[in-house]
Amino acid sequence: MTQQQSPIAFSAEKMPKILPILPLFDVALFPKMVLPLVVMQNVSIQLVDEAMSQNRIIGLIVSKEPAKENGYTPKDLYTVGTSAMILKMAKFWAFSPR
């Protein structure tokens, strides 16, 4: 398991012009809330990895349906979401001897 941590420093000046969106299902995130997430889809893992290598800020929007193999369209997502900063990330390697 590898871990990365970040101090809490979230300001409007750090908000990217284009916000990567991570769809959620059966859970919503509100401002000032801490939410542990398990990300399992490859596209979502790549999104989180890219955010971790940049400013750690992503958009979280609740989807109207469970995970879709072909991805989401704007119609699949609710219109309001929350911007979030990834505070801590841990990668668990499947089939690892540990």
Tell me briefly what this model is.
With 98 residues, this protein is an alpha+beta fold.
Could you name the key traits of this structure?
1 helix, two-stranded antiparallel ribbon, 22% strand, alpha+beta
The CATH topology turns out to be: Archaeosine Trna-guanine Transglycosylase, Chain: A, domain 4
CATH architectural name: Roll
The major beta sheet can be summarized as: 3 strands, mixed
> Radius of gyration, Cα only, in angstroms?
14 Å
Contiguous runs where pLDDT drops below 50 for at least 5 residues = none
* Element-level helix/strand string: EEHEEE
Number of domains: 1
Kindly report the spatial arrangement of strands forming the biggest sheet: 2-3-4
| Mean pLDDT over all positions | 84
The coarse overall form would be: globular
Helix-residue proportion: 10-25%
Question: How many β-strand stretches?
Answer: 5
Distance separating the two termini: 9 Å
Class from secondary-structure proportions: alpha+beta
- Level-1 CATH class name: Mainly Beta
Strand content: 15-25%
Figure out the total of helices.
Answer: 1
Say which CATH homologous superfamily is assigned. LON domain-like
Q: Overview of this structure, please?
A:
The chain has one helix spanning 42-53; strands spanning 2-5, 21-24, 57-62, 82-85, 88-91. The mean pLDDT is 84. The protein is built from one helix and five strands; from the N terminus they run ββαβββ. The chain has a single domain (2-7, 21-91), classed as Roll (Archaeosine Trna-guanine Transglycosylase, Chain: A, domain 4). The chain has 98 residues and is of the alpha+beta class.
